[in-house]
Amino acid sequence: MKIIYIGTRDSALAMWQAEWVKNKLTDLYPHLQFELVSMKTKGDKILDVPLSKIGDKGLFTKELEQGLLSDALDLAVHSLKDMPTLLPKGLTISTFCEREEPRDVFLSKNGIRLEDLPAGAIIGTSSLRRKSQLQHFRPDFTFMDLRGNLQTRWKKLTESNMDGIVLAAAGVIRLGWVDRITQILPESMMLPAVGQGSIAIEIDEQRSDIQELLSPLNHAVTEQAVRAERALMRKLEGGCQVPIGALAEVVNGQIILRGLVASLDGLRLIKAEGRGADPEAVGLEVAKRLIELGANEILAEIR
Prior knowledge:
Elements: E1 3-9, H1 12-28, E2 33-39, H2 42-45, H3 51-54, H4 62-69, E3 75-79, E4 91-96, E5 104-108, E6 122-124, H5 128-137, E7 142-144, H6 150-159, E8 164-168, H7 169-174, E9 183-184, E10 199-204, H8 208-214, H9 220-236, E11 244-251, E12 254-262, E13 269-276, H10 279-292, H11 295-302
Parallel strand pairs: 1-2, 1-3, 6-7, 6-8
Antiparallel strand pairs: 3-10, 4-10, 5-8, 5-9, 11-12, 12-13
């Protein structure tokens, strides 16, 4: 019996996602055997430095991609938001799985909503995107860097003087922590990371056999939305450690994309919106509007 090797990071959330893919494939192809291969990436190993200081080109994907290129893996399961917009030569995203809730959530120590926190409240997050938008919303907030897997972050919240932490809703939901959510943050307060909420499957572009196996898992509406978001990110030459937020939805065949670029202090926050049928065109259109409004100047300062 042929074994298909599925690469994944070894965190609880990454393993949940890979197991979900494995179960879907096992149901579809009971005559095949699927095996998970877990590994630590650079981003998993360096936990004492903010991601923005390390640089983010393949921080959570490189080791898995090396496995694909060496034929040790047949496919790799990622959180799409961790994937650079430019992939290594020879690799492609074959599958965009149906998106979970794409927004961010606030987990508060005492069940207090963000807007009701006392002046000078301490929020746990290492994300420049989250910090800058929260700083715009409440300039009095202070921030504590928060790295590690979701269990580690929750433990730090309970054991520290933080008032709350901001996480991606999708991960919290997938780990069964819905009861810990104080609030889902509305788009008016916080635009999520590009691709947030979607599981992406990466393969060697020559592996038409694997592409065929995975095709039933691709969700067309999710693909259209996240392609638009990634086109915006590519044009702005951003990464997951730059204060860029984007969220697209598909309504009656039209892609509606909202994008944002913010300065680190939250004082400058520019937004643009576009719509159309072609994901790449919509992403480029919104990126160009943001550039016209001053996005490049803000990003140049940050870099």
